[in-house]
């Protein structure tokens, strides 16, 4: 049992992620939690904001903003442009994703269900989070439905990267 936990821990920390490139490409979605920090302005900072299905949220002085499908960098620029001039001379803003929407692992794994996404997560690591394959699992029949994709199921390799909201399904072996 201890060795199993150690393997899972090593899997989760083994892939370093370049945070800058992740912030440039990651799109905020419903279920994410973001943090907005404005240097020297605690009234304009938000410690944790849950993004709803609409993606809309109230921001001081700017009113309704929408975060859905925007990168943290794009949302940051929107806030800077809105605050610059009328409210602040040179606002220093940081937008960070502090909690990701879940991924789901279903089918022939020991503990199917939802798990919090972590940057660098791959299909094999997600399966490890779900307790590993059952004895009946067809290890070559692993499918993924990607969040926001029109494709229903795509057969994938275990090294495929997983994104928040993805659904992984491991089918049953016939023998």
From TrEMBL:
<dbReference type="InterPro" id="IPR049712">
    <property type="entry name" value="Poly_export"/>
</dbReference>
<protein>
    <submittedName>
        <fullName>Polysaccharide export protein</fullName>
    </submittedName>
</protein>
<keyword id="KW-0732">Signal</keyword>
<dbReference type="InterPro" id="IPR003715">
    <property type="entry name" value="Poly_export_N"/>
</dbReference>
<feature type="domain" description="Soluble ligand binding">
    <location>
        <begin position="103"/>
        <end position="146"/>
    </location>
</feature>
<dbReference type="GO" id="GO:0015159">
    <property type="term" value="F:polysaccharide transmembrane transporter activity"/>
</dbReference>
<feature type="domain" description="Polysaccharide export protein N-terminal">
    <location>
        <begin position="23"/>
        <end position="97"/>
    </location>
</feature>
<dbReference type="Pfam" id="PF10531">
    <property type="entry name" value="SLBB"/>
</dbReference>
<dbReference type="Pfam" id="PF02563">
    <property type="entry name" value="Poly_export"/>
</dbReference>
<dbReference type="InterPro" id="IPR019554">
    <property type="entry name" value="Soluble_ligand-bd"/>
</dbReference>
<feature type="signal peptide">
    <location>
        <begin position="1"/>
        <end position="19"/>
    </location>
</feature>
């Amino acid at each position: 049992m201890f060795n199993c936990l150690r393997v899972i821990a090593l899997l989760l920390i083994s892939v370093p992620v370049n945070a800058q490139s992740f912030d440039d490409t990651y799109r905020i979605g419903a279920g994410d939690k973001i943090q907005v920090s404005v240097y020297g302005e605690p009234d304009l900072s938000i410690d944790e904001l849950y993004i709803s299905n609409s993606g809309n949220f109230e921001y001081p002085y700017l009113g309704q903003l929408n975060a859905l499908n925007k990168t943290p960098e794009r949302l940051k620029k929107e806030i800077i442009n809105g605050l610059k001039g009328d409210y602040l001379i040179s606002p220093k803003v940081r937008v960070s994703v502090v909690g990701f929407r879940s991924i789901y692992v279903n089918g022939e794994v020991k503990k199917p269900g939802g798990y919090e996404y972590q940057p660098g997560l791959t299909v094999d690591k997600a399966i490890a989070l779900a307790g590993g394959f059952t004895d009946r699992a067809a290890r070559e029949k692993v499918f993924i439905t990607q969040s926001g994709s029109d494709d229903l199921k795509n057969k994938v390799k275990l090294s495929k990267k997983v994104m928040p909201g993805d659904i992984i399904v491991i089918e049953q072996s016939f023998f």
